[in-house]
């Protein structure tokens, strides 16, 4: 009886392990996505710093 119970708990632990792995992988994907968005924001920031005159020209200055 205990053997079956231990087997069931072991199986349940395996399922939790798979679930944790899946969540960890998902978090990694979100991390990559955030890194990509951060990099994109950095590029926009550099672009804005490189072309400040473009905004003034649009305002007619």
Please explain how this structure is put together.
- The chain has a domain at 25-61.
- It contains 2 helices and no strands.
- It has helices at 2-50, 52-58.
- The radius of gyration is 26 Å and the shape is rod-shaped.
What is the topological layout?
Blueprint lengths: L1 H49 L1 H7 L3
Short description:
With about 60 residues, the protein is an all-alpha fold.
Q: What percentage of the residues does DSSP assign to strands (E)?
A: under 5%
Mean pLDDT, as a whole number?
87
Topology as H/E string?
Answer: HH
Structural class estimated from helices and strands: mainly alpha
Unreliable runs: none
Helical percent range?
A: over 70%
Keywords:
single chain; mainly alpha; 61 residues; rod-shaped
